[in-house]
Amino acid sequence: MDSDCDYDNSDWDDLSDDEDAEQFNFEEQDEPIYVKKLNKEVECNEYESDESTEFITTRSQTQNVDALSDPDEWLHVIFAQKEINALESFSPSLWPAEYYFEQYFGEELYTSFAKMTNIYYKQKTKRELNATSGEIKKLFAISILMGCFSLPRTREYWNKQIRFSYVADILGVKRFHQLRNSLHITNNETDHSDTDRFWKIRPFLEKIRETMLTKDRSQHLSLDEQMIPFHGRHGAKQYMPKKPIRFGFKNYALTTTDGLMLDFELYQGTFTPVNSKHKDDYGATIALVLHLTRTVPKNFSHVIYIDRTVMKNRIRGIPFDNEKTFRKENRGFIEEVTKSDKSICAVRWIDREPVVLLSSFVGSNPITQISRFIRQKKQRDLIDCPAIVSSYNSGKGGVDLHDQMIANYRIAAKSRKWTIRCIFHFIDVVLVNAWIEYKLDAASVGTTHIMDLYAFRKFIAKSIIESTEKRKRGRPKTNVATATNQVEKVDRRRHAVDDSKRSDSQNHWPQFAKLKSAKRCANKCNGHTRIKCEKCNVFLCVNGTRNCFKAFHEK
């Protein structure tokens, strides 16, 4: 997003002429927090934790969103920007690149795919497929490579004239389509659900979400919708005429400003799993917002950027000047009103069209200058831009950035099966998430060479394929001269420990390190600790929920 609030007609969901936006500040305060966007609005009375309803309770739940329409509640005063508490920072550690993907895709997931794919194939054809977890890995690896080297037809990768060896040497074309067309993660005969329209892929989605929920919630978060392309039949398929992808499934996502997805929920109409009380009080859209932000901690200040959540008819009571009079003002004119309890402000600003924003975090000050083309003067000139617009533009694009990275190398899946399209979409999501984590860690530790997304996807596909290759037992057949000239391959991982040293059960003593910031656990649990092994010189968790120190030395 452009920091100078320069709006264009790109696919990015930036603040534009015909849409307004809001910021949502999850900061503990004495009054309710409001979400605003000129289409729908909400008063958040509770913090939802898990399935229960808990949320910064400060007012009676009977006070609903109509409180914004009371003109006596608003004053023509400047809103004071609120301070944000700093989040604790951890010392970065760089893991092998493949680990960032493997934390989402464990071995048990491939095994489940193989098992359920075999069951489905037998139910359908009365024959055995005998698919293995290794073949499922190859199927996914080939699909990832197809996203990197896009051809118009899948079978072209095996075409004798232009044979693509990266793909054709891994699986035969017949076996590839046989596995892909039968791909399942649930048993159709026993796992059926009447209320979940995505029950066929629910175990897969929950495994990905489980890993996402372990990630730290950063200071600035973005909540928006993304589209999963699909043209077949399904009850949850949406038609969005103004989106780049018009047909498909709508997926609401919570991301960081870097594009790292932290939570998601597929929209399925009345069956969307949200808190029923929030839905009755505030409507489906706001209930979904509260559902996705339920994991944001209360003990820190977090700013969440959202749009299209406040209806015009809900803010008619805000004492703005008459709109016809307001439109006659020069470009850059700002009008601001604040609630009497100073919990929220509303800012109206003229760009090409009037723009309205609500925030419980920042108002119009400090005002900056941005460049715009003034039609009357027939030249570019500086106009005033309120701080709330600058803040919105700098924090809103997380979901759009994630979508852009997926679109660059999207896995092609021309299939009428919605399960295949959704599975491949979330493989793309995992790849983007893994690359963002890898890139941020690599930059933090000062790595000079960082793979771009294209190289990272190829590397992950290669590592998946290599994990299916069985190593031959016994001593390799190598003569003395060859062995002498060979250079031993060094494991350059940050926390690499020789297996014999790690499992010798001698003098492995825990030691507490006096560090300002905790280190990431070497057992790949996503935790941070200040306890390390004296002998192995790696940091390992030991707490009430897990004993990575023991598990690491028993491998």
Quickly list its features.
alpha+beta; 18% strand; PiggyBac transposable element-derived protein 3-like protein; 555 residues; ten-stranded mixed sheet; PGBD; disordered N terminus
How does this model look, in words?
- With about 550 residues, the chain is an alpha+beta fold.
- It has helices at about 95-100, 105-125, 135-150, 165-170, 175-180, 200-210, 275-280, 285-290, 325, 385-395, 400-410, 420-445, 455-465, 480-485, 500, 550-555; strands at about 20-25, 35, 40-45, 50, 50-55, 75, 220-230, 240, 245-255, 260-265, 300-305, 335-340, 345-350, 355-360, 370-375, 380-385, 510, 520, 530, 530-535.
- The protein is globular, with a radius of gyration of 27 Å.
- The protein starts with 20 loop residues before the first strand and ends with a helix.
- Strands 1, 6, 7, 8, 9, 10, 11, 12, 13 and 14 form a ten-stranded mixed beta sheet that branches. A two-stranded antiparallel sheet has the order 2-3. A two-stranded antiparallel sheet has the order 4-5.
- Among the domains are: about 20-85 and about 305-395, no CATH class; about 495-555, no CATH class.
